[in-house]
Structure formats: C-alpha cells, structure tokens
Protein: Terminase
Amino acid sequence: MARKIANRLWMPHSVPQLMAMMTPAAQIGYGGAAGGGKTDTMLGLSFLEHQRSLILRREATQLNGLVERSVEIIRSDKFFNGSKNIWKLPDGKRIRFGGLPKADDWMKYQGQPNDLLAFDEAANFLESQVRNLMAWNRSASGHHCRLFLGFNPPTTAEGQWIVAFFAPWLDDGHRKPAEPGEIRFFAMIDGKEQEFETDEPIEVKRGEHIRVIRPRSRTFIPARVEDNSFLMDTGYADTLEALPEPLRSMMRDGAFGAGLDDDVWQVIPTEWIKQAQARWTEQKPSDAPMTTLGVDPSRGGRDETVMSPKYGVRYFGEQVVIPGTGAPDGQTVAGLCIANAQKGTRIGVDVIGIGASVYDHLKDLVGDRVEELNGASTRRSEGKTDKSGRLEFKNDRAYDHWMLREALDPKSGMELAIPPDRALAADLAAPRWKLSGGKIQIEEKADIKKRIGRSPDRGDALIDAHATTPVSVKPRSNTERAEMSYEPEY
Structure:
C-alpha cells in the first residue's frame, strides 16, 4: 500500500536525482549548490528503496521541514508518530528523523541497523559523528545499504572534512580527479582511509591475525537549482543570485573553494593559512636543513602521533602521521622521532601525557637536542607580549599559538610555507582565544576536541615545530620573536 502511494506521489524530477536513485554506490554525496533537491532525494530513497532509514539533521529543531515534506509526499500523517519522529508504514518500512547537536549524540543510535543512513546538510555534522554511525549502516536481511550525504559547500573550517571525504570530486588539487557520478572505492586501513581500484577484499595483518576488509563504493553527484524545475518556477535562482559573495558562489554555483566564515575569536584566520599553503612546493629549500621537528604524541585511541618537520625558518615539510595503535609507548615514538629527524635537528615534544615518556627517552638519545614543550607552563612566555606590546600570555600554549599567528600574518613578511593538507588547515583554524585577566588565553585542546569531534594533532605538531628553538639559534626574546628578525646560522 505505502509503496504504491509513494510511487504515485514521488518520482525523480531531475537527472541528478535519477542518478542518485540508480547508482550502485554504497556511499553517495549529493548537492553542492543550494536548491538541488537534496531533501527530496533522501526522502524518495527512504520511501521507495529502503526498509530501515535514519535521516539526520545536526539540530533536531531543524527537522520540521523534513517532516512536513514527508507528509506532503504521503499526503497523510496517519502512519507518522510525531512524539518519536518516526514513520511506520504498512509494508514494514521504518523512517526515523533525528538530530545530533552534541558530539557524542551519535551514541543514541548505535546498535540500530539502518540500510539507509542519510545526513541532511552533512557539512554541519562532525566527521566523527558520521563515521561512527557508518558502522550501523547495514541490513540484517541483506538489503542494499546506502550512506547518503546531502550538502552545500561548508562555511566553516570544521566542515572541511566533507571535501576530504569526497576529494576526488571536490578537491581541485587531487592527483586523480573523478567525474560526477563516477564510482571510486575506499577502505579504512590502520586508521587511515585509502583509495583502491576495485572492491576486491583486502587482507590486513593485525599481529598474528589476518583481517579481510572490502572497500566500499563511493560517488558524488552534483546538483544545482537549474536541476530543480519546481524551485526554478518560484524564482529561487534569483534569490541565490542576490546573495553577497562568497556566499553567492557557494550556494548558487556550488563553489567549494569560495570562502569560509571565520569565528570572530579564531586564533589564525583561514585566509592566512590558505596563503601559506599556496606558497608551499614539494621541492624543499636546497640550502636549508631540517632545523626543527615538532612532535605531538598520540594519547592512544583514535588520536594520531604527528611529526612536523621544519626546514630553515620558513618551510614546513610534509607531516609524518602515525595512527595511535602504531605508536603505543614513549620508546616507540622516540625511535620514530630519531628516524625522521636529520643530524642537528632539534626535536620539540609536547610533554603532556605520553609525551613525558617520549621526552625522557629522547633526552637519553640526543641530549640537549630535545626541547620540552609544556603548554601549561609559563617558562617561555613569562614577560612576553604580542606584537602590540600590550597583551601578555596566560601560558606557553597561548604564546606558541600566537607566535605562529603573527608569523602567518601577511604583514609579517615571513612568508611561511606549510603543506596543503586540508586536515592540517582545519586543525590550525580550529582554536579560539579570549582575554582572561588581560592575558591571551587559547581554548584547551580537550575543549577543541569536544567541539570538532577529533583531536587537532596535525595543527599542534606544526605549532610545536614553529615553537621549538633550533640548536644554532638563541631562544626568542621580545625583540627577537617568532623568527622574524634573524636567520639561523648553519
């Protein structure tokens, strides 16, 4: 009964919607521009193609439009339970609506298999929320499963994960771009997602055991307001045209590189990060050895151990990223530091947590070439001020973040070059600051992790590399700060 009603009342009304219905891909990205029919597509999939569907918005208060549209499609709310936000149709279909306002709210849905898992405005979700719930995108009856992510270009740094997730389609710098609707295959190996040519099973050795992993198919289908005849008739395209830039390019054209909205208290402006990444080349400076290696050791679990090399005073090399399971103790991390440093490189280690053990082992191995970085202390920041000479720092963590901010400032003349890694850029853009007792204070790492759903390890490692004093250079002072007024002596 319900299938007949749905088939009569809803059908794809654009080529992108038809592509989304027909693609065999297990993971679908859809949209780009506003008005492309994202909401209708996920509702159509739930009513026509799936038995158990979970459709999510970041805020539960944003579900009203979804519910109202679903009632329009069925032309009745007889089978809808408003208190639980769930459709229970006569043919056994279950379609549930929910929200994930807090980082850990995904846990409310764990253990509940859904053959359709759909995120509306997916760029507003944390990557951790999406990936954690992907584990329950399955069907006990063997029904075809889909992950559906409908989204516009992200307007904040926290939403940039969606571009990395669909990098072959959305990242202009991707080494192997994909066409719209083209299917690629991905699998998570040792905490890092990798692309594969096919979905053939892969054997991964874990200690004495062999685990078989099958890559999942993924595609991205772009859609614009021109594809939505209903909205074109309402003049919605003219509304999008009237938006100010860069919002017009993002919403009207689906331009993923158009711009981001920075929080007013963001420590490092996103534009400064983008400029530094644009200066980066794969070719290291030929006359500059590796002066420092910043190390942010893993705290275990999903956190990563990240090593960030710096050459000379301006060039940061590609980071070495190791899953938490690959660096289980301080001795192992210390060995990895030695393996990735050059002779004469000074190694700066975040000594909080496992870092203390890493520092102790390195002290035995390289002596004074290892530097202890403790963000909670005031050893290096005492008496220092920002470039205005007016604001002091709450602790070394604030000092180190601010020194990188001032070095990245286009007016500084430093012209730092940092790797064009989206995860690194998001990490550097994540921290916020405030004035506390007249001093600059940076948001705690635990609070950042709670807000963005992951640990900003890559950004912290680069900050550590910048904060570490090269062996041949005297420690910074108020007049010789942030490596702006000297060159190292090699």
Summary: Residues 274 and 469 are 25 Å apart (CA to CA). The radius of gyration is 25 Å. The chain has two domains: 2-253, 270-467. The mean pLDDT is 86.
